[in-house]
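Student: Please help interpret what follows.
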Amino acid sequence: MKSITIGIIEDNLDFLQSLSGVLVQNPNLNLTTWNSAEAFWASGKSKEWDLLILDIGLPGMSGIDVLKTYHTVESRKSLVISSLQTDDAIFSALRNGASGYIWKSELDSLHDTIQTLLDGGSVISPSIAAKVLLSFRKPQAKADSLGVGVEVLTPRERQILELIVEGDNPHQIGSLFGTTVGTVRQQIKTIYKKLQVNTRVQMLKKARQFGIF
C-alpha cells in the first residue's frame, strides 16, 4: 500500500503522544510533528504532506493562521483536532480550508476519519454539525451593540474563556495546556481587558451574549 505522510502541529505534549500512539498503529502512516506553527514553517516541508493535522490554540501563530497560508494551495487537506468549541473558531477553521474538525476526545474513529479526508470527503463532529445548522437559525450578535466582540480574542484566549465557562479553574487550565498557573491568570486578565469587563460574572454574561454557552 502507498505510504501516507501526515504532519501534526500540536503544543500539548501529552495529547500529541496520545494522538501519535493512535496513528502509529497503521504501519503505512509516516508522521512528522511540530510543537508550534513557527516550527512547522521553519522546517520548509509544508508541501509534502498528504494530510496536516493541527490544533487551533497554538502558541504564537494560531492554527487559523496556518490554515490561511497552507490552503493557498487548494489541493492540500487538513484536519483540525481541538477542544475549542466556540462558533468563531469552528467557522474560521472551515472558512479557511479545513477539511474536517473533530474534538480531541474523538480519536477512536481517527483512522476512518483520515481515510474519508484522503478520499476527498469532509468530516465534522455531530455537535459541530448542530452548531452549523443553528448558525443559520439564530440572529448574530452585533459587536457595536455589545461593546466588543469575542473575535478580538486570540484562539488561545477564546479557548481559555470557554474552559472558564465550563467551570475549569486556572490550575486545571494550566495543566491542560502545560503552562503555569501564573501564565493562565495573566491570560485571564488580558481577556477581562479585551472584553471590557471587571468581574467573572460580567465575563460570563458577555460570553453568553456571543453564544459561547
